[in-house]
Every structure is written in structure tokens, then in C-alpha cells.
Design goal:
- It is found in: Membrane.
- It is a multi-pass membrane protein.
- Pfam families: MFS_1.
- One of its GO terms (molecular function) is transmembrane transporter activity.
- It contains 15 helices and 2 strands.
- The termini are close together.
- The protein is mainly alpha-helical and about 450 residues long.
- Helix 1 packs parallel to helix 7, helix 10 packs across helix 14 and helix 10 runs antiparallel to helix 15.
- The chain has a single domain, classed as Growth Hormone, Chain: A, CATH 1.20.1250.20.
- It has a two-stranded antiparallel ribbon with strand order 1-2.
Length: about 450
């Protein structure tokens, strides 16, 4: 069936009309982001084994875990965001989920740096660009004042996926290493882990066919051309610019933890993936659940405060509290490492959820995907190649057994203060919530 998009806006319920939250859709979106983040972070706990097996250098490893996912985000996020605002989002989500499943399976059969890089690129096309699609769908299946709490589940799913990447990756790797003939004989454990997780991700694509395309709400201009969308984006440059500064700077510490957490535990604390995979997964999952609950409820509660940009206040506070937690990689033992890492990740979860909720509440429907795509581009580029390059340069200054940990700490503290200033200024320039200013219209869309 061919999609038909009618540019004329159709009347829809008034803003005060009750819109029933479609929890079944939200749960399926949660399952989808869980799958995306699991495959996206699967290599993190076992990258040292991949490096040894394929004979990779640190630079090549950084390219694979950083640039291979950042490149699709940088090139495709904005075009995909345009498709989100103009075409059927549910079909787009199915395509993207298929990419990350295929790429993960392909990783299991890569024979050298180039094959591994290509497989991670394919996986990144889906996993690195799907978030704006998810948020766009979610925003249309619940009322604005409930979006923080609805995003709570999406955020828990995302962080559960990150936790599962460490727990499954590390634990499965350790088990396969101890039982080399359990599945495929003579296949290295890291390859088997990617193959099994990739097959599971492919199976999880199937439930997406059950989601029906929701009607669009809070539309200021139905199906605007790209030129008009960019103009609207430019009009909000003061708010979005400082929001992106906060996200840009804050992304360094989070990106560094994602890229180098496993290496720090192996090099500085003498732990193997089988030893740290389980407890790191619990730390990530615990911080993800608690941070999502705090972020979701505080995002909704803060909207009631009589200050400009109040929805961003939880992100501002969480950023301030995260700065001292950047010292996690220089803790004297693994126990303190785990607790301080928990505090850092807790702040990051709150910040990321509030960022997305702020865009979903303060911007009209047709601008959300583009704004979220820009946020994703910044996060992926900063958390990938930029962080890798900065850390590679800084480790030349901080040498010795704790050199990597000292580098990560300094990077987190300095960028934390920059992020704090960004969020404070974003609050000052924040627009009024779109539900209070925009007429409720929804373009007709054939599904």
C-alpha cells in the first residue's frame, strides 16, 4: 500500500480533551529501545578480546566503538528526522530495527578491521538514529503533562539495554569461553555472543508490526517543507543552542564511560569481562531505573513551577551533582568505583530524560524529530570520535597505570562545568510549552 500524505490540517480534539495513554505502544517502544541499546553496547565489555583476536590497535578499536556508530548518526539523523515528520513512523522504525539486527549478526563474521567497521556501520544506521522516531510516536500516544512519566519507561528500557549489553556481553562471553563447544565449535566467544544477541534482536523486530501509526497532535504547521522546518529551528536557536551546549559538554563524561569503562577495569583493576560484566550491568540498570523514575516525575512536576524553562531544572541540578562523580575511575578500589560510577550514571539518566521531555513539551510536533536528531548527532559524535580523540591526546599527558583514569576524571570535571552553564542559559531562553500556544491539529495520514 502506498503512503498518502494530505497537507491540509484536519480538525482534532481540543487541548483540554482527554487523550488516553496507549500503554501497549509505550511498552513495545520500550522493548525496541532495549534491543537497540543492547546491541549498540555489546562490544564494550569484550572489546579487549576483540582487539586481541583481530590484532587491532587502540586507534582502530576507538574507530570501531566510536566512529562506526557516530558516522551514521551524523549523516542520517536529520534525513531520518525529516522522514519522521512527513511519513509513516512505524514502518520507518521497523526498517531501522532490522538494520541493527543485521549489523550485529554481521559483526560475528567480520574477519578484520574493515569488515568489523562495516558491520558496526550497518548496526549504527538503526541503533544510532531510532530515538527521534521513538519519541515522536510516544509523544502522540499520551498527553503533554504525562510525557515525563511516559518517557520514564522508555528511559528504563534504554538503560536496561545498556546494562544488558554489559551483563549479557560479559557474562555470556565468560560462559562461552568456559564452554567453547556449547554452540558453534571453533568460533571465538565474542563472535558467538554477537551472533546470539543479533538473532534475538531480529526476533524482537516482529512485535513492531503490531503498532499502528498514531494521529499527530500539537501541530503548528502540517507537513512543512524542509526550508520552513529549518527556519523554525533557527528561530529557536537561543534555546536549542544552549541546550545543545549542555548536552555537548555533558556527553563527554558519559561517552568516555561507555567507551572506556571495560578497558579501565581490565587495565587498572585487573578484572576480566566475566568478573565485571554482572555487577557493572547491575550498576547501569539500577542507575537507569532510579534515574528514570526521578527524571520522569521531576520533569512533570517542574512544569508547574512559575519559572521560565522550569522543566530543565532537574537537568541543571543533576549536572551539578554529576561533576564530582566524574572521579569514579580514580577510586582506590572496585567497590568505591562502582558507587561513584552509579552516581555519575544516575545524573546522566536524569539529564537525558529531561532533555527529551523538554523538547517534546516545549516544541511543536513538526520540530521535535529534527531537534532530537540534532541532539542525537551531538551525543554520538561527542560520545564517539571526539571523546576518543580527546582521551587519546590527554593520555599522552597523564601516563602510568592510572593514566587513563586520571584522563577520564579531568575530562568529566571540566566539561561538567561547561554543561552546567549550558543548561542554565537554556532555561533562560526556553519557549513556553507548545500545548499552551499551538492549536491542536493533526494532518490526515493513511496507514
Amino acid at each position: 500500500m502506498t503512503d498518502t500524505v494530505v497537507t491540509a490540517a484536519a480538525p482534532a480534539p481540543l487541548q483540554s480533551a482527554f487523550r488516553k495513554t496507549k500503554w501497549s505502544v509505550i511498552w513495545l517502544l520500550t522493548l525496541t529501545i532495549f534491543s537497540a541499546l543492547t546491541v549498540g553496547g555489546l562490544m564494550a565489555p569484550i572489546q579487549e578480546a576483540v582487539k586481541i583476536d583481530l590484532g587491532l590497535s587502540d586507534f582502530q578499536l576507538a574507530m570501531i566503538v566510536g566512529s562506526a556508530t557516530a558516522i551514521p548518526a551524523a549523516i542520517l539523523s536529520l534525513p531520518i528526522a525529516w522522514l519522521v515528520d512527513h511519513h509513516t513512523r512505524t514502518r520507518l522504525l521497523i526498517i531501522l530495527a532490522s538494520f541493527w539486527a543485521i549489523g550485529t549478526i554481521g559483526t560475528a563474521f567480520a574477519q578484520d578491521f574493515y569488515g568489523l567497521f562495516a558491520a558496526k556501520l550497518v548496526s549504527g544506521i538503526g541503533a544510532a538514529t531510532a530515538f527521534p522516531v521513538l519519541v515522536s510516536i510516544l509523544a502522540d500516544v499520551c498527553m503533554p503533562e504525562r510525557r515525563g512519566r511516559s518517557m520514564l519507561l522508555i528511559s528504563i528500557g534504554a538503560w536496561a539495554g545498556v546494562a544488558a549489553a554489559f551483563a549479557i556481553g560479559g557474562t555470556l562471553f565468560g560462559w562461552l569461553e568456559a564452554n567453547p563447544t556449547a554452540f558453534i565449535a571453533n568460533m571465538p566467544p565474542w563472535r558467538e555472543a554477537h551472533l546470539l544477541v543479533g538473532i534475538a534482536a531480529a526476533i524482537l523486530v516482529l512485535p513492531l508490526f503490531l503498532i499502528r501509526e498514531p494521529a499527530r497532535h500539537e501541530v503548528e504547521q502540517a507537513n512543512p517543507p524542509l526550508r520552513e522546518a529549518l527556519k523554525a529551528f533557527w528561530r529557536r536557536r537561543a534555546f536549542l543552542g544552549w541546550l545543545y551546549v549542555g548536552n555537548f559538554a555533558g556527553g563527554f563524561a558519559e561517552g568516555a564511560a561507555a567507551l572506556w569503562l571495560g578497558s579501565v577495569l581490565v587495565r587498572q583493576y585487573g578484572q576480566s569481562p566475566g568478573e565485571f560484566g554482572g555487577w557493572v550491568g547491575l550498576v547501569i540498570l539500577g542507575s537507569g531505573i532510579l534515574g528514570s523514575i526521578i527524571g520522569g516525575f521531576t520533569a512533570d512536576i517542574s512544569q508547574k513551577l512559575k519559572i521560565r524553562g522550569a522543566i530543565l531544572l532537574p537537568a541543571l541540578i543533576a549536572t551539578a551533582l554529576s561533576i564530582p562523580a566524574s572521579a569514579y575511575p580514580i577510586m582506590p578500589n572496585v567497590t568505591l568505583f562502582a558507587w561513584v560510577l552509579f552516581a555519575l550514571l544516575l545524573g546522566g539518566v536524569i539529564i537525558n530524560l529531561v532533555n527529551s521531555a523538554a523538547i517534546a513539551v516545549l516544541l511543536p510536533n513538526e520540530e521535535r524529530a529534527t531537534s532530537l536528531a540534532a541532539l542525537a548527532i551531538i551525543g554520538k559524535i561527542v560520545g564517539g570520535p571526539v571523546t576518543a580523540a580527546v582521551i587519546a591526546g590527554m593520555t599522552m599527558l597523564f601516563k602510568g597505570p592510572m593514566g587513563l583514569g586520571v584522563t577520564l576524571t579531568w575530562l568529566g570535571v571540566v566539561t561538567g562545568f561547561i554543561s552546567l552553564a549550558g543548561y542554565w542559559l537554556a532555561m533562560r531562553y526556553a519557549p513556553r510549552p507548545v500545548a499552551a500556544t499551538a492549536p491542536e491539529t493533526a494532518p490526515a495520514e493513511a496507514v
